[in-house]
Each structure stands twice: as C-alpha cells, then as structure tokens.
C-alpha cells in the first residue's frame, strides 16, 4: 500500500497522463452523450449570472449544468491531488527553461507555479494586471471566439477528425510561441521583474 | 453515431450536450467524479504548472507534447471504436458528435487564446485545478476569463466570423 502511495505521489509521466485525459472523450460520450470541452463552462457562467439580454447568452444553460459540475470536479481534483497525493520533491523543469526564466527575474522554482508571480501581494500591481487580469481576459475572450480551448478543439475536435479544430490548435500554439519567445521578456521587464 | 450540423442559436460551443433525456441532481454526480479524476491527472502530470507551459513554448521538453499527443491518439482510437462498433450511450441513445464549422474565430480567437495561455500558464481546465491546488489568486484570472467570455458574447456579431 505504501509503495502504491509512493508511486502515485511521483509526478506522472506523459504516457500515463495523456491516455487518461484522452479517455475523458469516450467516457463523456458513453456516460451522457456529451462532447468534451471546458471553456464552455465560462459561457455557462455568463449565461447563468450576467446574461444582460445578450443573444449569445440566451440559451438553456440548465441543460449544460453537467459542464459546470465537471469543472467543479476539476477544482476538487486539484485539491485532492495536492493535499493527499502531492509530490514531496521540488518540480524538475528543463535546465534551459529554468535558466531563461531566471534571467527574466523568476527566483522561485520550488512549486508548480512561481510565487514571484502567482501571489496575492501582486494583485494590485502591474504584475497582477498582466498575469491575472490581462492573461485571463485573453484566455476567456480567445477561447470563446475560437469556439473552444485545448480540450474542446485540440483533444475533442482533433480526435473526431475535424479540421477546423486542427486549425484552431495550430493558432493556439502560434500565439503561445509568439508570446513566450517575443513578448514575454519585454512584458516582464515592463511590470518590474 | 450521427454527425450533426450544430444549430447556431442552440449551439453551446465546444461541449454540447446531445443527450435527449434530462439529468438532474444525483445524475450529475458522475460528471463530478469524472472531473475529480481529470483534475487529479492535471496536477499529477504537472499540466497545471506555469513552468511546464513555458517549457512547451520554449521547446525545451517533450512532456506537454507527449501528454496532448497521446491524449489525441487515445481519443481518435476511442471515437473510431464507438463509430465502428456502434456503441450507444448509457441511456441507450445514438452517440452524437456535432460538426465544428470553420470560422475566422478559429484563427483569430485561437491566436488570442495562445497569447493568454503563455501568460497565465493555463488553459481553462487547469485554471480550475490551479485554484483547487491552493493557488487561490488564480480566482482573479478565472474571473477575468469569464469577463473576456462575456465581452466576446457582447460583441460577437461585430467581429469577423
């Protein structure tokens, strides 16, 4: 039993995690005829709480309650994994990435997220504005305009062989490469790193 | 398996519910459990880590490519099996996968999301798992993502589609 817990507590390799994530696709289809996708939960929250008579938010969100229950589960899962199954060691990231990020001003490489950025003290600062407010806005606006995110397009869409999802995924990656390789360094300098 | 054109006024984006029979209360528990398992995998494979996303976009590690790639391969195989073996849903309904129509949003919106993904280190799923993992300030990111979704909804008819 202890051995099992030790094994589960280690970071899981991609060839374990990837197929488990992929199995979400048939699980949702067979359990309830549902297509996998997570960003739609953000739309349902809008439709439920702040529809403001906007046609885009006028639909029967009650029928999509399952999606909100699912993301609530993801949140609980995050809690369970971190509190019960967490890895006692520091995260091991590629030395080149670590060196590049250190050069940009990141100093804490101990957790899953750098505390230099993701802390409440940064909320009302330029760092908080860029990393939480701007970043979150781009994720919410972009995924909805694209009609899906990594789960809806990259995983569900490509798995069902739909080419618009492949196009969307290619542009997800292009945006990410451009931000990381070109804009991130000046942006971090600008906000005081 | 039926492939249907999604009706724009009815379409609920990337994760439509094609089940005809309604589900309430306890019937939703299975999605909670599935979500919990999914969240655990997210954390255990460190997919929610801002560092892992940086590694991916700096091409310094295979990890994220391996995760997404093997998830897609598993998805393709599963859907082909469902199609060929004509597997039905638990409720006995024919399994429906709505067709995604190409829009300019796939390109423009996709690109905008990519920019945000590299900043936050999270796509929408990991946002929830990050909050659950104790990075509570990500609640602000999530609220901002909801605001972004709302602003898209408000101006969707004025954007190229």
From TrEMBL, chain A:
The chain crosses the membrane at residues 12-31, 65-85, 123-142, 163-184. It is found in: Cell inner membrane. Keywords: Cell inner membrane, Cell membrane, Membrane, Transmembrane, Transmembrane helix, Transport. GO terms for cellular component: plasma membrane. It is a multi-pass membrane protein. InterPro entries: Sulf_transp_TsuA/YedE (IPR007272). The keyword Repeat does not apply. PANTHER family: INNER MEMBRANE PROTEIN YEDE, SULPHUR TRANSPORT DOMAIN-CONTAINING PROTEIN. Belongs to the TsuA/YedE (TC 9.B.102) family. This is Uncharacterized protein.
UniProtKB/TrEMBL annotation, chain B:
The chain crosses the membrane at residues 31-51, 63-82, 102-119, 131-152. It comes from the Bacteria. This is Uncharacterized protein. Pfam families: DUF6691. Keywords: Membrane, Transmembrane, Transmembrane helix. The lineage of its organism: Bacteria, Pseudomonadati, Bacteroidota, Cytophagia, Cytophagales. Residues 1-20 are annotated as: Disordered. InterPro entries: DUF6691.
């Amino acid at each position: 039993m202890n051995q099992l817990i030790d094994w589960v507590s280690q970071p899981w390799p991609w060839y374990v995690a990837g197929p488990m994530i992929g199995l979400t696709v048939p699980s949702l289809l067979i359990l309830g005829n549902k297509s996998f996708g997570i960003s739609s939960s953000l739309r349902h929250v809008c439709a439920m709480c702040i529809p403001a008579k906007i046609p885009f938010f006028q639909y029967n969100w009650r029928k999509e309650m399952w999606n909100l229950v699912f993301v609530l589960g993801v949140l609980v899962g995050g809690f369970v994994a971190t509190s019960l199954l967490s890895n006692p060691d520091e995260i091991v990231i590629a030395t080149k990435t670590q060196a590049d990020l250190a050069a940009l001003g990141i100093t804490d490489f101990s957790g899953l997220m750098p505390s230099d950025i993701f802390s409440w003290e940064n909320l009302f600062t330029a760092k908080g504005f860029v990393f939480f407010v701007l970043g979150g806005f781009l994720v919410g606006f972009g995924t909805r305009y694209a009609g899906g995110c990594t789960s809806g397009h990259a995983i569900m869409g490509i798995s069902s062989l739909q080419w618009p999802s492949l196009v969307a995924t290619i542009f997800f990656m292009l945006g990410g490469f451009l931000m990381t390789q070109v804009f991130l360094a000046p942006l971090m300098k600008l906000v005081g790193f | 398996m039926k492939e249907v054109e999604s009706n724009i006024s009815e379409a609920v984006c990337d994760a439509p519910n094609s089940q005809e029979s309604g589900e309430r209360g306890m019937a939703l528990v299975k999605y909670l459990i599935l979500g919990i398992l999914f969240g655990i995998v997210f954390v255990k494979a460190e997919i929610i880590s801002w560092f892992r996303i940086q590694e991916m976009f700096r091409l310094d590690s295979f990890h994220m490519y391996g995760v997404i790639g093997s998830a897609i391969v598993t998805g393709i195989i599963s859907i082909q099996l469902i199609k060929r073996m004509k597997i039905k849903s638990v409720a006995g309904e024919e399994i429906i996968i709505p067709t995604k129509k190409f829009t300019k949003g796939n390109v423009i919106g996709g690109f905008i999301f990519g920019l945000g993904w590299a900043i936050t280190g999270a796509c929408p799923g990991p946002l929830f798992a990050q909050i659950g993992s104790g990075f509570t300030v990500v609640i602000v990111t999530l609220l901002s993502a909801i605001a972004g979704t709302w602003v898209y909804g408000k101006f969707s008819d004025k954007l190229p589609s």
